[in-house]
Design a protein that fits this description.
about 525 residues; alpha/beta; nine-stranded mixed sheet; 17 helices
Length: about 525
């Protein structure tokens, strides 16, 4: 029996049309099927019309593919106003003949009067619009309005098949929006079967927090992402986070960057963190985690690199004010746009929306360093497992971009190392713990490195001092009984230590020699 050989280089590449929507092309493996219809379905308010319109606008502006938007519900004026908030100027694109808007009024009473339903008139009208501007893309919004007055199921199915076949014969990449039915993807339950690609949009509310998600139900002729992907609609359009694309194939740098604190650099082989690594600074409340992160931000900006600071607990103004009390002025770096704060409450979005927002901001700013302060506040909007999953995606994304990241985490007490609500210590490259040390009726701080992958780091606990002069680390001293001497205890012990050093040499001459005669 002859074996059939397969040449991988000659495998057929499925033709696709790039959408231009952030993240969506990655999920789809290159875009919508070119020259074929795609069904975009979902319930009210999930973003079907906006996503379809952005596909059309991006095609006209970025890929030189004119498009026709045929609406059965909204007028051309209403569409223009609705998408203006996304920064799309439809009037300008219409004047340039890159986009054609057409509102088709469908009245149910008129259909009932004739007793028959024929799409021939629609084909003529749509064909004329396509030929007028040489359109390559078409959007029909929504298909339910087109067939709202038709009760005969046989005619309905026949006309839906005819519509999809006509679009294929015209060779246009078409988007048909549809409303979700009861137990089916669409009200008619047929469109999903005749479409080459079906995308389901969902807008769900869990514990009073809303999240939009996208799922590719089917895509004929090609592989695609099969998970649910969170997406965001803001003033710049639609952004999709392709979480499954974050594989462990990122590069690893041997270059080290300063932490901004000399003592910490000394503990890390004398040079600081590895560039592109992830760092966790954990400790109880008031141990200086934000101060360490802020000094790192200063060091990044002094290298003329960009730092993006995500604050989930304090506002930008509050952090700037607080850091001034320890001789750290962040204002010059903010004014020079090297340091950018993005402060928000954890309850503003769900975890997936926070992830999309972080992802989007990082791609826009293109920083060399990112600070997340603190990650423990995220547990107010998700379970332990959900927070860990979200942070895992974020860490791998930052590593893939070669971005050095610092995460701060609050622990309940010094005996508890890894915060149970996050549990990301296994993903972290360098882990520093700041702990409370109570001695002689006062509270002081100690810092040590739990781990630092790939480098010979210090295993000593050092006293961590925060005052109006800044941050510094001191070697621990011990008395004769082995007890640590820290804080104000250093001042009390200094005279004793000095005396010990100065008296010993002098006593060599002052010592009384034993009386040999008396000994006899």
């Amino acid at each position: 029996m002859n074996k059939v050989s397969i040449n991988k280089k000659s495998i057929y590449q499925f033709p696709k049309a790039l959408t231009g929507i952030k993240g969506l092309d990655e999920v789809l493996g290159g875009g919508f099927p070119k020259g074929r219809p795609t069904l975009l379905c979902g319930s009210a308010g999930c973003g079907k019309t906006l996503m379809a319109m952005e596909f059309l606008v991006r095609g006209a502006m970025e890929y030189n593919e004119p498009g026709v938007f045929m609406a059965f519900e909204e007028t051309s004026e209403e569409l223009t106003q609705n998408v203006a908030s996304l920064g799309f100027n439809l009037n300008e694109l219409v004047e340039q003949k890159k986009i054609k808007l057409d509102h088709v009024r469908v009245e149910r009473t008129e259909i009932e009067e004739t007793g028959e339903y024929d799409l021939e008139g629609l084909f003529i009208r749509l064909g004329y619009a396509i030929d007028t501007i040489g359109a390559k893309r078409v959007v029909l919004d929504t298909i339910e309005s087109l067939f709202s007055g038709l009760n005969n199921q046989a005619i309905l199915r026949s006309e839906i098949r005819r519509l999809f076949r006509w679009l294929k014969d015209k060779g246009v990449t078409a988007i048909i929006t549809g409303e979700r039915g009861d137990g089916t993807l669409t009200r008619q339950g047929l469109e999903e079967y005749v479409s080459d690609c079906v995308i389901l949009l969902d807008h769900r509310v869990i514990e009073q927090i809303s999240t939009r998600r996208l799922r590719v139900v089917k895509y004929r002729g090609t592989t695609h992402g099969t998970n649910e992907y969170p997406f965001l609609i803001d003033e710049e359009g639609v952004s999709v986070l392709p979480v499954t694309s974050l594989n462990l194939n990122y590069a690893s740098s041997s270059e080290q960057v300063s932490s901004g604190i000399e003592g910490i650099d000394e503990m890390l082989a004398g040079k600081g963190f590895f560039k592109g690594s992830s760092i966790l600074i954990s400790g109880t409340a008031g141990t200086g985690k934000t101060s360490i992160a802020s000094y790192f931000a200063k060091a990044v900006c002094e290298r003329k690199e960009k730092c993006l600071y995500f604050a989930f607990e304090e506002s930008e103004a509050q952090i700037v004010r607080n850091m001034q009390s320890i001789s750290l002025d962040l204002k010059p770096f903010i004014e020079s746009k090297l340091l950018k704060f993005q402060a928000s409450s954890p309850t503003l979005f769900g975890l997936e929306m926070h992830l999309v927002t972080l992802y989007k901001s990082i791609l826009e700013v293109k920083p060399q360093a990112v600070i997340i302060d603190p990650i423990t506040n995220l547990n107010t909007v998700g379970t332990c497992k959900e927070v860990r999953t979200m942070l895992t995606r974020l860490i791998y994304f930052l590593k893939s971009k070669g971005i050095t990241a610092i995460f701060t985490a609050e622990i309940k007490n010094s005996k508890e190392l890894d915060a149970p609500d996050e549990g990301i210590s296994s993903l972290i490259d360098t882990w520093g713990l700041v702990r409370d040390i109570e001695n002689n009726g006062e509270r002081n701080r100690g810092l040590y490195i739990l781990k630092s992958r790939g480098m010979n780091h210090s295993n000593k606990v050092r006293e961590f001092v925060i005052n109006n002069k800044g941050l510094k680390l001191l070697d621990m001293e011990f008395d004769r009984g082995g007890n640590s001497i820290i804080g104000s205890g250093r001042k009390k012990q200094k005279p004793h230590v000095a005396a010990k050093k100065t008296i010993s040499p002098a006593n060599k001459k002052a010592k009384v020699k034993p009386d040999k005669k008396r000994k006899k």
